[in-house]
Structures are given as structure tokens and as C-alpha cells.
Amino acid sequence: MKKSQRGQSEQVIRTRLLQAIFEQRMPPGAxxxxxxxAATFDVSRTTIRQVIARLAQxxxxxxxxxxxxxxxxxxxxxxxxxxxxxxxxxxxxxxxxAENAATLSFTELSAHLALEDRARRAGDRGTLVRLTGEFHLxxxxxxxxxxxxxxxxxxxxxVCLAILLYASGDDACPPDEHRKIVTAIKKxxxxxxxxxxxxxLDHIERDLRLDDKPTVEISExxxxxxxxxxTSAGS
Length: 235
Ligand SMILES: [Zn+2]
Known about the structure:
By secondary structure, the protein is mostly helical. It folds into two domains: 3-71, Orthogonal Bundle (Arc Repressor Mutant, subunit A); 76-211, GntR ligand-binding domain-like (Four Helix Bundle (Hemerythrin (Met), subunit A), Up-down Bundle), CATH 1.20.120. It has ten helices and three strands. Strands 1-3-2 form a three-stranded antiparallel β-sheet. A hairpin with a 5-residue loop joins strand 2 (61-63) and strand 3 (69-71). The longest helix has 24 residues, at 76-99. The N and C termini lie far apart (78 Å). The site of zinc ion (ZN) has 6 residues, from helix 6. Zinc ion binds at residues 132, 135-136, 173, 178, 200.
């Protein structure tokens, strides 16, 4: 039996896994096994190994030295670093698109915005987090620059995982901001599109509350130190 006739193709499996991860059916940190995945998709373990290797390359799965595989769970610090890089790259992406707007097709992007609206109306947060992440990747894909696409695949995936872990709001990306960015690109207004993208990324970072954790840890540490102080003073 040919491999292509058995079970599902690598591409299909990859897409299904990404959906499961970003819709939180397999949350950040979840452990995966080759055996279970091979059985689920009715394919060989070799096929699954290739899918896992590719997702690990994109930073979405993490392979440990023990052989175990986990869904990546970026720390707050990592999320902050990822957003620093996205702030460098994404305003440039929308500028490139605005410059080339006359030769680009925005049909897919418009259809995508409609899907985001539908998920938002339905209150389907998992689907919305996945879709809003994919929006940023679609912008990179529209540039046709393979290096940018590769970089953004990893950057957006890991920020999506951080959103699932830390975001406080219901919206993965604030409503309307994507649409405003697309409108500016279509109008060939690169500088407005870039400014909106920066504002948008700031918004995402604020929603991630990346500054919360250290503050809590420090105050906890001070409380603990105070208790120690009192204990030793009393003894
Ligand atoms: Zn967004």
C-alpha cells in the first residue's frame, strides 16, 4: 500500500494539529506521543515523526532530550522577547504590502476577517485566538518573502501560545484593528498601516500582562522576607 493511500497526508495532519493546539484542545505544555498520533491519524510513526520534526522546527512543539514531545509553553519573558521582534518586523510587512497594494489580491484576507468576526460573535475564543494569529501570518504570506514567512510562522505561533497562557481579555487581537490595518494597506497608506500595526502589537502586549508576574513574585518575596525577619527577631 502506498503511503499516500494510508491515513492522512503530513500537511493535513499538521493543519489538524495546529487547529487542536490553537483552539486549546491540546493546551501549551500538553504531552504528545508518536504512538497515539499515529493511531489517531492512521499513519506510520515515520509520518508522525516528520510532522513533529516540522512543528518542532517552527517552535510549536518542543522535543526533550528524554524523547518526549510537548506543546511549547513560552514564558512571559519569552513572550516579551517575541513581541520585541514582531514590533521590528510587522510594521515593515504592512509597508511592503501597501507599496504593492495595486498588484495584490485581498480576497483571502477579507474572507479571513469575516471568519474572525463570526468567531468573535459566537464567543469562540479558541477559534478566535487561532484565526487572529493566522491573520498576521497571512500578511507575511502576501509579501511572498519566504524568509519573512518562516520567521513569522514561529513568531506568531509562539505569541498565540502565550496568549492562551497569559492573556487577560477575551479577544486575542482587539476587534477592528485588523480591519483598519487592511484598509490602510489597500489605500496604499504604508505609514498609517505601520503605525496601526505598532499600536496593535502594543495592545496585544498589554493584554498579555507580561509585567504582572515579576511584581507579584517580588511582593511575595518581600512578604516572605518580612516573615523571616519577624521570626528571627522573636527567637
Ligand atoms: Zn492581530
